[in-house]
Amino acid sequence: ASAYVPAVTRQAPHFKGPGFAIRGLFIIDHNEVIKHISINDLPVGQSVEETLRLVKEFQIVEVHGEVCPANWTPDSPMIKSPPTASKEYFEKVNK
C-alpha cells in the first residue's frame, strides 16, 4: 500500500505539485481499494472524529455485510442488505 498511496495522490485532482499543501483524505482498505475521498480547500479543516467514524463504518460494513445509513454512529442500527431485508430497520427508525 505504501507505493500505491503516492501514485493515487499524484493523480488526484487536488495535487498541485511539490510544496503545495491542500487538505485531502483518502481511506484505502487492505486490498488497496479506495473507499472514501474528501478534498477540502486549504482554509477548511477536517474532523478527526468524522474520519474515525468513517473508518469504523467501512470496517463494520466489511465484517457484517450490512449497510450504514446516513449519519450512522456505532450505536445506530444498520440496514440489512438486500433492500427486501431492510424492512426491520425502516420500521425501527420510522416509529
From TrEMBL:
Keyword list, A-Z: Antioxidant, Oxidoreductase, Peroxidase
Pfam families according to UniProt: 1-cysPrx_C
EC number: 1.11.1.24
Gene3D superfamilies: Glutaredoxin
Reaction equations catalysed: a hydroperoxide + [thioredoxin]-dithiol = an alcohol + [thioredoxin]-disulfide + H2O
Keyword check for Oxidoreductase: yes
GO function terms (MF aspect): thioredoxin peroxidase activity
GO BP of this protein: cell redox homeostasis; hydrogen peroxide catabolic process; response to oxidative stress
Keyword Cell cycle: no
Transmembrane segments: none
Peroxiredoxin C-terminal domain mapped to chain residues: 58-92
GO cellular component labels: cytosol; mitochondrion
Region (Disordered): 73-95
Similarity annotation: Belongs to the peroxiredoxin family. AhpC/Prx1 subfamily.
Protein's name according to its UniProt entry: thioredoxin-dependent peroxiredoxin
